[in-house]
Amino acid sequence: MTISSLSLSKVVIMLILASFNLNVSMIDGQVAPQPIAVDVTINNKLLDSDLKFHCKDQHSAQVDLGDQTVSTGRSWSFKFLASPFYVPLYSCTFSWHGASDRHFDIYEGERDGKACNQDCTWDIYEINPCRVSGTDQQCFPWKEG
């Protein structure tokens, strides 16, 4: 069995790339952090109205979560992968009967990454959105515009 020089070149290139990949993924002798799956849940806590919203990733035009409608007391969730090399920013426009549109960044990597870890739950009230952690809530103002 003979190996052509072209095939041998391909094997050598693949070995070099594999070696480079292993070296890049090592930082001070430790494996680089891997992406983690983050769950974001939006709970409708309005008094008596469907919550309508549209969310999208502000860093990627291809990530648009579309129009959603959630009844009072119900929830809706989405997932994404986060890594130290990608700081996500998911913005939503909310509306309900009798109110003007409200805007809020439902997931900011810098604000929510450590506070939520892998599970970020939000209760949406008329006056503001509140991040839920166990029995604690931290509320934030709606964004202007």
Describe this structure in words.
The mean pLDDT is 83. The protein is 19% helix and 44% strand. The protein has a five-stranded mixed sheet with strand order 6-3-9-10-11, covered by helices on one side. Strands 5-4-7-8 form a four-stranded antiparallel sheet. It has 145 residues and is of the alpha+beta class. The protein starts with a helix and ends in a 6-residue tail after the last strand. The protein has two helices and eleven strands.
What can be said about this structure in brief?
InterPro entries: Self-incomp_S1. This protein is an alpha+beta fold.
Topology:
Layout: H1 5-24, E1 26-27, E2 30-31, E3 36-44, E4 51-57, E5 64-70, E6 75-82, E7 89-95, E8 102-108, H2 109-116, E9 119-124, E10 129-133, E11 136-139
Parallel strand pairs: 3-9
Antiparallel strand pairs: 1-2, 3-6, 4-5, 4-7, 7-8, 9-10, 10-11
